[in-house]
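Entry 14. Structure prediction run on the chain below.
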Amino acid sequence: MKSDESIHPFHIGIPQADLDDLNERLHRTRWPDELPGVGWAYGIPRDYLKELARYWRHEYDWRAAEARLNQWPQFTTTIDGANLHFAHIRSPEPDATPLIITHGWPGSIVEFAEVTGPLSDPRSHGGDPSDAFHLVVPSIPGFGFSGPTRETGWEFRRIAAAFAELMRRLGYPRYGAQGGDWGALISRELGRANPDEIIGVHLNLIPGTAATAEPDAEELSRLTPAARERVLASWRRTRQWDRESTGYADIQSTRPQTLAYGLTDSPVGQLAWIAEKFKEWTDSRDRPEDAVDRDQLLTNVTLYWLTGTAGSAARIYYERAHADYWGTPPEPSNAPTALADFPRENFIPLRHIAEQTNNIVQWTEFDRGGHFAAMEEPDLLIADIRKFFRKLRETTGQLGRA
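Output returned:
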């Protein structure tokens, strides 16, 4: 039997009963105790979380966020047995470059609210219309409206294969890819596995390119002072990460189902699980709102809550950790690749390591911003994406134009 390749329009319309249930659960939150004076050291502080939960219940407006998301043309289709939800934002410029943009965890398509307009319609945002993109913004299988997944095995390589099929189904024989976090692994894999289709890959994280062992004196002696300091900083950041920040990944890589009960039953539990990462992984000082808009953060959390996908989103960690390639070096990619390096990213990448397995043609180091680049520093990210694909157009002509 021929598989169903049809594409169906999708409109977000959350039942009011689901919002009422969220409100009631927030009202009935059972709060834990907390040690005095520990700040963020033991996790997200109770007083801050109470404030955020109060705002979520009494001031945050999901309907306004829903209406804004519904301004994007959205669709679903079935690929490899999974329901795949995506926004497809075609540029008014007919010769725009197709670009698939992929989020990570604990993000969602909400991450891209501030970048889709300028990327798809630069003419209306003070930019050059030749920099326009036709945007495809998918929800990763298991996340949001692409969730939950119904079978095992949805690791990033399988996801990349599904996204490649999506782009073919949409009629884009040549296109670019962009992403951070899991979106970086998926986008890089798109370029590695589909060299005849991918124009270039723009990333704001390249996994596996930080220092993972303390550099020895001989290694450091061969470097310039600036390179030496970056290697040492990379090692210090990695060591701190390994000591303080791997708990969430260890749980999601081993027992995502056990975690799912708490996050699916308690909205404050879901809020704490995600908001903590927005504090730790952003260029913030005292709270996530130093770096990202509070309502946008809550829209992202609410999307996880309303779709009940805390567990199925976490499973991507389990699937990668149990894939047959886990623990092996990344396979080399020949796709032209750019990195936008934001200083508060979880790891400090080293170019000489990245170039061992990636075709690096652009490397930009910024002085501000963190893990959620599209939310924290949308203007910087937009400019870097435009610069990269403009450079590729100048060297390859009109390849990839739709």
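Residues 398-402 have pLDDT under 50 and may be disordered.
Filed with the rest of this week's runs.
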